Amino acid sequence: MTNNGLTAIVSTLVFGSILASSSPLTNGDAAEKTNPKLAAAIGHPSFLSPHASPIALNRNRVFVVNTPSDTVDVIDKKTRKVVARIDVGIDPVGIAVRPDGKEIWVTNHVSDSVSIIDTDPASPTYLQIIATIQEFDFKAKSTRFDEPVGIAFANNDKAYVALSSENKIAVINVATRKVDKRLNIPAQDPRAIVVRGDRLYVIPFESNNKTQLSGGTGKIDGNLVTFDANEHSIANNNVLSLGHVTDIVKHPRVPDRDLFIFDTKTDELVDVIDTLGTLLYGLTVDSNGRVFIAQTDARNDANGRSGSRKHGLAELENRAFFNQITSVKLGGKPKFFNLEPLPPKHPEKGKALATPFAIQISDDDSTLVVSAASSDKIFTVDTKTGDVLGRVEVDSVPRGIALESVEGGGLSNAWVLNAVANSVSLVDVSNPAKPKVTETIALQDSTLPEFKRGRIAFNKAAASTTQTFSCASCHPDGHTDQLLWVLKTPIVTGGNQIMPRSTMPVRGLRDTAPYHWDGIPGDPYGGNNSANTRIDVAPNSSLEVPESTTRHLIDAGLASTMARVGSKQVNDEGKEGLLTGGERDAMSKFLLSVTYPPAQKRAYNNVLSKKAQDGFERFHIKGNVRSRKANNVCGNCHRMPFWV
């Protein structure tokens, strides 16, 4: 342990401590080799963890994360059967093969670790865990390796791991299994990373798009600045945001860093490229260093002038995001491949490619193979023109692709992880114009069927009129897109415009109704809310039926945000919007079951530091002792657990 209490922990497991369920299976009978009593006893809730490169090929095996089961499943490429299931950490989300093929590294998002699997067929520990990489601050009793996602090797001696919640890349010595250094990423939530040649490429997931509220401290110009932020937000606690004009604007001075490029020899930053997209899901790089990013670009500014121009949902045209692939090379200008017609035109029914997620490139640099996670599609793209060549439907929410090539670099097969269905599709892509599914392999999954049905509906772009975005588009992985939106929300008492709202997470909804900033959706109590501060309104859901609160929220969203203004579509229950009653019911139960992951810096002994205890007391009990107002206690308005 060093003077500041920081140290690295490396757990190396020898043959005698090998996990039983990691032994090879015969005939792919994974379910029969798993102890159902043990599995039932150890279960945990779904954390909806993100994925980055969750499937990989190594020799004659396919290695894929089975996130719900906390395993890496091994598929024989020839028999297409699961031949081994290897216990790893909680919520495995990413996989990388060491260049010599002798090890596979797996990022465990919730247990804050990397599991190392021996993949040397000549080794006595073949297909066993031989080490676990973690790092702790023993003074604070907390992790220093929080929420890893993407993983990539510079060579056999050095690996990179994206620490998503810390906005850093850990540089790991392969021989010692220790973190040598960290690379700072001044952007939100780095996930997908790739090494090509002597360059490391990093994209932050929530990279922003320069949008913000139109407040400022300088002159009000009616464009970028429409109200005095100090007067209305700092000097006065204007809880209803009354008396000023509020827009969503794109401000040129707001950071929008999208692609970070490092030299893998020195780990020095080479370049940062900005203004590529908003939510960056996946990337791949060709042999010449051209980067391709699977992304969505938010249009929250398209109808953002709710104050100065009285914008509403009509101006958004039911196109919350552009689904895109961006192509860019160091020193060059980016090209944007839009996967659907731009408004006012919209894609034909069944033709949208919502939420581009996983992306890989053929060895000859000619063709991209991409997943549309919210459309359940795999599609191919010409790298020069950006034209979509072909598409095929797979299982729910494809998030990972591993390619097989033929001699000369042409495509052969694509192995696809369908993350929510928890299956692997084998897609023949030898003819990029006509990809076809040749096999679907189900992975063992203890997820409750109703939860899975609800999660599928939550990720389904067919819930929107144009089929271009899903509920998960704004609430990815149950979190938020970190953006402001003008939606069909009520005008507050005394107001004269729709106020922009920041996206809220769907995690932890149970026992917190009513929802949203306004306290209107899913209200089982009645009383006042932001639109009715002087009168009481009746409840709109039942306290005795918890899912009725989320069902009210879902019905309202499908009839407004997800529906094109003027649409007359109704579902099988006669309710406005899409998705059947059964899908809505399943989603209502799903939303009540999504929990937050463990707190980032929570001590592993579950004891607060003296400083944290003092802070809690000041926030909730003593209040601001310097305030001119008596009992000005922050916690009186900002109640736990969600501070609202």
Account of the protein in words:
By secondary structure, the chain is mainly beta. Among the domains are: 1-188, Beta Barrel (Lipocalin); 455-591, no CATH class; 608-644, no CATH class. Helices cover 10% and strands 34% of the residues. Strands 1, 6, 7, 8, 9 and 10 form a 6-stranded antiparallel β-sheet that branches. Strands 2-3-4-5 form a 4-stranded antiparallel β-sheet, with no helix packed on it. A hairpin with a 5-residue loop joins strand 25 (321-329) and strand 26. Helix 5 (546-559) crosses helix 6 (581-591). The radius of gyration is 25 Å and the shape is globular. The relative contact order is 0.09. The model is unreliable at 1-24 and 26-34 (pLDDT under 50).
Distance between the first and last residues' Cα: 41 Å
Predict the CATH topology of the domain at 1-188.
Answer: Lipocalin
Runs in which pLDDT lies below 50 for 5 or more consecutive residues are 1-24, 26-34
CATH class of the domain at 1-188: Mainly Beta
Number of contiguous helices = 7
User: What's the main sheet like?
Assistant: 6 strands, antiparallel
CATH architecture designation of the domain at 1-188: Beta Barrel
Give the rounded overall mean pLDDT.
92
What's the total count of β strands?
38
What is the molecular shape? Answer: globular
Radius of gyration: 25 Å
